[in-house]
Design brief:
The chain is α+β, with helices and mostly antiparallel strands. It is 16% helix and 19% strand. It is rod-shaped. The mean pLDDT is 88.
Amino acid sequence: MALETGTHISDLNAANPVSTDGLAQADDHLRLIKSTIKASFPNITGAMNATQAELNVLDGITATTAELNILDGVTSTAAEINILDGVTSTTAELNILDGVTATAAEINILDGVTATATEINVLDGITATTAELNHMDGVTSNVQTQIDNVGGGLLDYAMYTSSGSIAVPSDCSKLVIKASGGGGGGGGRAIGNYAVQNGSNGGDTTVTQSTLGIAITAKGGLAGQGGTDPVAGKFQTDSTGGSVLSGGGSIGGNEGGHMGSVGGGSNGGPGSLVIKEVDNPSVQTISFTVGGGGSAGGTAQSAGVGGFVEFWFFG
């Protein structure tokens, strides 16, 4: 009787025993089958419930045990893992996000920004407020250049807080005019009866001399308001006649009065400043009207500061 030798199932000869063999070695064949099965599956100590389809899932896997164990403890869904599909970033690049607390909306602020890091870093250390930066609104040329181009020495200087006129000196080679509108009056609520007390707008300041091409209007600041939702006085943006610094002139009055559930008040807005340069002015008389400060809404608020006109005559 033919009897092969073997250790595992793959060593068995499916042709043994042949039909002409006797029964004397039948027990040897049975023992061989049992020994190869046990040697091939040494760790099977209970029922194997996996189907052939489930076992065939492993067909073609080349991963090591350590590599498969990476999945140990993973609770992500297939959809969550698929988020990584197509990602080409390195670990270092992904780690840039470590510690980021910005929202999508905050990050989207950068959408469309074309400035370089150097250009953005210009803002590093700036302590000016929005209102202070807005003083440059309307300036169309370098302020320092305007100052540098004033020319020779100062011949005369005059400042007015009321209306009048002034003559240009005969030896003047450059004239600089600074005109400010009055600040708006502060608003609020009356103490006791809570009555709304609105301030008034600051007055406009004008400077005119047609021969010299001077036609300045420096707008006054808007009034402060009182009420449940008071609107703060703002500067006006329609000043004309030179380089306009909206809100760069006389300050507005303070709010005041009753505060609480019925509301409060707001400060008056600042007047605007207009700067005008005239080269080689002829001897002419310049007329001007100075806008007053806006009145306060009541005794608990303050009026805006009045406007002014400055004349700088250089030789």
